[in-house]
Amino acid sequence: MREQSDQKYKNINMKNIFKPFGKISKQTIIAMIALQVMATLLIWHTTSNGLIPKPGTVAMAFGKLLTTKLLLDNMLVSLVLTLKAMLYSIIITLFFAYTSVIPFFKTIAQFIVKCRYLTLTGLIFIFTLLTKDGSELKLSLLVFGIVPFFTTSFLAVILNIDKQEYELCKTLGYNNWQTLYEVIIVGKADQVFEILRQNFAISWLMITMVEGLSMSEGGIGSLLIKYNKYNDLTNVIALQLVIFLIGLCFDFLLGTTRHWLFPHSKLKQATA
Amino acid sequence: MTTHIKSQVLLEAKNVGLSYNKKIILRDINFCIKDIIRPEMKQGQVVSLIGRSGIGKTQLFKILSGLQQASTGNVTIHGDKNVQAGDMGVIFQNYYLFEWRTVYQSLLLAVKKNYDLKGKEDETIHQYAADFHLTEELKKYPQQLSGGQRQRVSIIQQLLKGSNFLLLDEPFSGLDVYVLEKVTELLLQVSVSDERKTLIIVSHDISTSVAISDTVIILGNEAGKAGATIKQEIDLIERDLAWKKGIKKEKAFIETVEEIKACL
Question: Where are the alpha helices (DSSP H) in A115-184?
Fold first, then answer.
């Protein structure tokens, strides 16, 4: 009887995989992901020809890469640069996002948002003239590239603030500056981490481009360019895998830090 | 009729009107709330503002609370002071609280605005929390509270702010019978906590709000005229229907409710 009921439950669970808004158990999710990964690897293995390396070859190169000092050194260079750029970017973003509720700064913030459409390649020469060395050039280009995306995300948060949050402040007798502090600075502090998390991928994308400008300092980007130059596709894919995994680690780290510093953000997620 | 006198004017709305893009929402709103004095007891005022859905109750609520500017006329308190946002304690329909603040922090924000409680903030919060059965909830976030608890926190927050006026927007909306009873008890408790405490309840739940009020103001439309206005003001004390337990069963009360319904 119990076996029959278990079987029935499994069948329902399996059906839900292909059902819109279907709910499935954690075990089913794990099994499903494992199957999907295996299927992808199988397709990759069977379809790859001489030019595209097979998964096994990439896995070996990945293992080898992890043990080299070359990867560690370049990784550190890239990470330091990215973290520096993200720190400067978030400071600039917060300044313009917080002040965007003041009419004088609103237009500036809106202009920054539109700067997403500018290409960094077209600005390299100007930035070269404005900066002292390669390191400064890379950092300033990265900051210039990231800030519009950060600002776009944060302004969206501010624009979507529930009117009742402002009204509650007013009923408590707050003036406009106190309202700005409570609703935007304190109330949306957790969102800063969410924006960092969501836009970390953009910084990672740009790093390859900016590091190519000053190869002597190294970095994952310059390593990737070198491997590409010599058509070393196995190491390119292995390096991509490293970049992907670091991205996932940061995603997890920023998400966890957010929930730890702002417990209400976890509750909000649970109720949503 | 219960012995009482009505003394000074606590709140007055004079010729209040509201229009949006030439469309008249409210017009000629005139009423005043006087301090009710009963011998040997602290008796606050409870006024119900009743009207059909979409008539403009919430707009009038916002004007009374100072959150919205009237197109014409004004609302004054304590004589001739024009009402401003922050003068009134306001409890919104869904009992909104800052999601990023714990109950204690939310109450602290309010108590810090009350200069009479300076230096006694922590003590007062714990006292109110105990009175309203919320001691266990002080460290919780709003998402962790039940609807009833949220409502109590919302009410305490506005009470701690120190305003004598408390405006409540649809406080009985979506409550089950048990919670409804608790809420009405709570509001009555608040109304007798201070002589000058004045509750203005905006609601379309006629029976429940009338049962705890001393005055009913009916908002409605008049034939041939655009915009809602006050159609009738009922003094429940004169009808001997105020401050009585189990009033809902009395014939006179049922007749009054029917009279209000007919007026809407």
Answer: 124-130, 134-159, 163-171, 176-179
